[in-house]
Structure to design on (95 residues):
């Protein structure tokens, strides 16, 4: 799925959604993932997090923080962590 934005340009949303959640976490510098059952945990970029509370699910390509309650896909993680728009998050993920 591409989303039309502005002057006829299309955002490659599906390509951005396919970026593995572990790759998104790596790009954001969230630390070395720790195994927690079937998931992996990293530091949440949305609050002070000395113990990893942000869980990554590589099979579903999603994340969720049990402390602040935020979660979603890689686009949402990039968007919230960097405080950028949806469009900019998509662009950064496909670079």
């Amino acid at each position: 799925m591409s989303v039309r934005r502005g002057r006829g340009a299309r955002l490659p949303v599906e390509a951005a959604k396919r970026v593995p959640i572990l790759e998104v976490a790596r790009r954001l510098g969230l630390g070395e993932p720790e195994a927690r059952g079937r998931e992996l945990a990293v530091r949440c970029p949305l609050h002070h997090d000395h113990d990893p509370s942000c869980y990554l699910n590589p099979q579903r390509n999603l994340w969720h923080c049990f402390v602040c309650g935020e979660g979603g896909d890689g686009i949402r993680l990039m968007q919230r962590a960097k405080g950028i728009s949806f469009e900019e998050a998509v662009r950064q993920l496909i670079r």
Q: What stands out?
A: Residues 56 and 63 are 4 Å apart (CA to CA). The radius of gyration is 14 Å. The longest strand covers residues 39-42. The beta strands are 3-5, 9-11, 34-36, 39-42, 54-57, 62-65, 71-72.
